[in-house]
Amino acid sequence: MSPLDIVTLDNLAQAIPKWSPDDENHLYAVVDMGSNGIRFSITSLAPPQTRLLAPIYSSRAGISLFDALQPSSTGELLFPQSTISSVSSTLAQFKELADLHHVPPSHVMVFATEAMRRAANSAAMLTAIAEATGGLRVQILEPSVETLFGAVMGSRSGLTDVSDGALFLDLGGGSVQITWVDTSLDDYEILAARAGNSMPFGAAKLTRVFREGDVGIQTTESDKLMVSMQAAFDNLCSQFPRLQKIREAYERGEDAKVNVYMCGGGCRGYGSMLMHNDEISPYPIPTVGSYTVTGASFKKVTEMRRINDTYEGKIPGLSKRRRQQFDAISAVMEAFSTAVPNIRHVTFCKGSNRDGALMMKLPRAIRESNPWM
């Protein structure tokens, strides 16, 4: 692979060219090859509504790259040929759609994350995609860039500012990222991405452990998750004085709490379950984007598990697959609330890696502007 096939914080400016108001075409096609599914979108960055990231098209292919990984005789994780063929043909169809929308080839971006990083034959997948799409290149995000695009700027795409600081959590299929975002700091997004922690406890990965592992393995992985989440929070406290002061004040018995913003399919799934159980029922606008709960409500993990196990009807925002992963999702939420006991409010965000990548193309003045003004 060439150096730019792996997107790092150091080569970000070269890997993600900047948007210009003078561009002849402002349509962008973005593909996020996530571990739990592949998501496609076409977005308009045309002035003067650039900051709104106006959606033109959006879809999802239910191909779980993480579930597709199979161990070889040597123990390496591999994509089977059937998955490689399915993915490459699906991307070829989207490339045709992007062409029909007159998206310039230079405005088509394809990102891959945890599953592609883990696969020993990822090069075969990349080659098949390039051949099927006429040369489309896949950029593999290193964990810190995944934190930047998802937990930081993906969530941030629907917010004005977070000048008081907040924890941001992104739960995907293969990994979970946590960081602290304080928009009052210079270059806050890069600081947050570098300080963030990426842990291999995504919803798909943990679901496989809970489904296939014996009780001993399940207990070991759950313990690792708890320890990793606590270590991640400790690390953030050591790097951000404001967060450390809040923690110390809380430990002294003061009413010092932190706000939390969550994105990623796993977090939104948990938010959808909370909304289903909200005392306001039916919820007037049953979409999890911007849905906010108190820390006390968020911590009702056992109750949410019980509802998932016993409720037989359809829950808005929760697919059959997401409900099958709910034990894993709730395990991450439980580990987070144990590591961070002083949660004031949790807000669930609709932003994604795709939104975060587009945000990073924009000039800072536009990126930091209020999207509603």
As an assembly, this protein is: single chain
| Total individual domains | 2
Number of helices: 17
Give the beta-strand count. Answer: 14
Largest sheet: 6 strands, mixed
> Span from first to last CA?
43 Å
Which structural class do the helices and strands define? alpha/beta
CATH superfamily of the largest domain: Exopolyphosphatase. Domain 2
Give the CA-based shape. globular
Strand content: 15-25%
Radius of gyration: 20 Å
Topology:
Layout: E1 6-7, H1 12-15, E2 27-33, E3 38-44, E4 54-61, H2 65-68, E5 70-71, E6 77-78, H3 81-100, E7 108-112, H4 114-118, H5 122-133, E8 138-141, H6 143-156, E9 166-171, E10 176-181, H7 188-195, E11 197-199, H8 203-212, H9 215-239, H10 241-251, E12 258-263, H11 265-276, E13 292-294, H12 295-298, H13 301-310, H14 320-324, H15 326-339, E14 343-348, H16 353-361, H17 364-367
Parallel strand pairs: 1-8, 2-7, 7-8, 9-12, 12-14
Antiparallel strand pairs: 2-3, 3-4, 5-6, 9-10, 10-11, 13-14
Helix pairs in contact: 3-5, 6-7, 6-16, 8-15, 9-10, 9-15, 11-15, 13-15
Organism: Bionectria ochroleuca
InterPro entries: ATPase_NBD, GppA/Ppx_hydrolase, Ppx_GppA_N
GO biological process, one term: regulation of transcription by RNA polymerase II
